[in-house]
Amino acid sequence: MRYLASKTCPEKYHQSCGRHVSLVSICGTRMWTRCRFLLARLYLDSLLDKRTVKQVEDTAHGFTKGSASLDDLLDNAYQSVIDRIDSQLPGDSRLAKRVLSWITFAQRPLTRSKLRDALAIEQGSIDLDPRNRHDADDLESVCAGLVNIEAEGSTCRLSHYTAQTLLQEALKK
Question: Which residues contact 55 (CB under 8 A, 6 or more apart)?
């Protein structure tokens, strides 16, 4: 199980559930045997703020409770991500929704630079203030794992094609 965690989980996962072998075991048993990699990643992201064995167990138990199909599991996992975004500091939550809106509704794929420029223009203004450009790592972070913002010149994208439909519905509200 340690091998699986070390090969599939970025360092941020080891900070929360990787400290305890039992937590890695709980995470691994519940997720890797029942879910595909996207779903496992969404689940692991939901464990980042869990600091005790009981918190991890309670959260992991909820992963499969009441859901029979993969579509239901994905819908529940995405809703959990949206809830985490909504529970961030108000500025971070607004920024995440702006990032997700730009990526989801753009007519064509946005590069990292174009996304940062679009977000730097304030409502009611037509000018770009370079001092208002967000750090790409911050943009990725506030989106709770739903976007990938790669190196300069690369395209910003949703972490998985299944996020497109969910976000179109959720962001229109």
Answer: none
Provide the pLDDT for residue 45: 72
The model's pLDDT over 52-62, given as tens digits with 9 standing for 90+, comes to 888 888 777 77
Instruction: Name residues whose C-beta falls within 8 Å of residue 155's C-beta, 6 or more positions apart in sequence.
Output: 109, 110, 111
Kindly report the pTM of this predicted structure. 0.65
Domain ranges for the chain: 2-65, 85-172
User: Tokens 């996207």 belong to which residue?
Assistant: 38
Q: Which letter, b or e, does each residue of 148-168 get, where b requires 16 or more Cβ atoms within 10 Å of its Cβ?
A: ebeeeeeebbbbbebbeebbe
Phi, psi for residue 165 in degrees, rounded to 5: -65, -45
| 129, 122 contact by CB (below 8 A) | yes
How far from 172 is each of 28, 86, 167, CA to CA, in Å? 35, 15, 8
d(CA 168, CA 173): 9
For residues 163 and 148, give the distance between their C-alpha atoms in angstroms, rounded to a whole number: 12
Options 1.20.1070, 1.10.8, 1.10.10, 3.30.70; CATH of 85-172:
1.10.10
